[in-house]
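For the sake of clarity, the format in which proteins appear in this thesis is described at this point. Each number in the token line that follows is a code from a learned vocabulary of backbone shapes. One such record is shown here in full, so that the layout can be seen directly:
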Amino acid sequence: MQTIAGLRTHVVVDGSGPPLLYLAALGGNWFDFDQATALLRDRWTILRYDRPGYGFSDPLPTGEIPSIFTEVDRIDHILDVLGIIKPVVVVGHSLASLYAEAYARSRPERVAGLIMLDGSYVTMPLQLVPPRWSNRFAHVAATAVNRLPLPRVAGVFAHRTATYPGPPAGFDNVQKKWIAEVFNSSAYPRALIVEQSGFGVMNSELVGLRRTAELLTPTLVVSALPGRRTPFGCFWDWKQRRYAAHLGADYLALRPARHYFLVHQPKVAAQVIDEFADRAIRG
């Protein structure tokens, strides 16, 4: 536990070698990257942390709106506390691609490479509701959810559904313990809804940053696509290709794969990360 910007923040470090920072998806926690970490830690120092309200980290104060600039500062503080001087390879999953891109644009000297795993790219960014309203509604909704008479296993079931079909060998007992503790807490749904409500604000911030800060970092965009062609799969492939073109990035489509392929296809995820990160480090 480290105190970062006034909040107790859960930080996990594994392995040895060049630093690789994993940023979890919306609602994600450090253990989502456990399987891939086990395959990468012989070659990389894997850095993970839980954003406010996730895992074992303190939540944001009531009324504070998530911001990519706050997250850039948080990443800076974490790297400083850990004594990480070498440029890191940043892996952003889903919504965390916003944070990853913002960090690479804001701190190009600290980033060696950028990998977006099924990242979030908005073709028509809109902020329809004032941020304070959406944030207030998020807290009201979270309070309502926490008052629902949900069974004790509801959180675990939600995690199992999101990461279906799960790791090849299943979750071990330690992972099951952490999953139950995190997903059945009252802090988790609040953090999830608050971060989701702030998506429009953060995306707008990133759009503004793109106008003023060039992306100089070697970048890979990875998309998870179904094995057979579907209308949604074709749309997602088109959208991710457009995302890669916008970033000037390499593009890789994984078939068949689901959004949480890093959990149920850890060997594939680790290989993709390892190969691109190695090229980025070597220049």
Summary: The longest helix spans residues 131-147. The chain has one domain: 2-282.
